[in-house]
Amino acid sequence: METSLFYTPAKTVVNRHQTFLKTWLTHHILANVLGMGLLHTAISHTLTGPHGVRLTPPQWVAHTISLLLFSFILNFLQNKALQLQFKRGNFTDLGYFLVCIPSAFWIGYYAFYIPFDILFMYLAIGGINAWRLKKYFTDEKKWAWQIMLALLGGALVGIAAGMAAYFGFVKDIKVLTGDFLLWLCITLPASVTYASISKLFLRQHVTGKVE
């Protein structure tokens, strides 16, 4: 029996799905820990010093630069994961990430203050992916509410972990070290939560399996 040149063994397809899902998980965690957990603090708090409720212009600029860098890293690493499953460029939708994520962060901060900056930032990530990735899935509406739910869950877990860490031990640590610990305590639980939940949802869409 002749084998078609276009035939893809089922095992290869399954392996590709698994690789994609694992990469989606690890890349999102890496982007959050590197971009917000480490670089955000290093840029926004080291260069311009600690701040109160009101930021000086240099502090605002430093924070915005760190948010733009996080958005860039997240977009790039997410696209590298998506390329394992879909046809996609390295910087597809970068503009949406660079505009929406910092904007949502600042709207949350100035309109409602902490922790709504974190909440709005993660919801912005969910909103971008709900809108821009829906074309890859048959059930677009299902994907949209699933990814928003995943990011909401991640944000709430990150906020809860951050508040527990701050009142538990971070507030008694010197400023810079405390800032690094605080943002790691926020971004690691948040990213593990939303990346794990969204991975489960993605599995449904790319393999048709619920678990």
UniProtKB/TrEMBL annotation:
Protein name per UniProt: Uncharacterized protein
TM region(s), chain numbering: 29-48, 60-77, 89-107, 113-131, 143-168, 180-202
Entry keyword set: Membrane, Transmembrane, Transmembrane helix
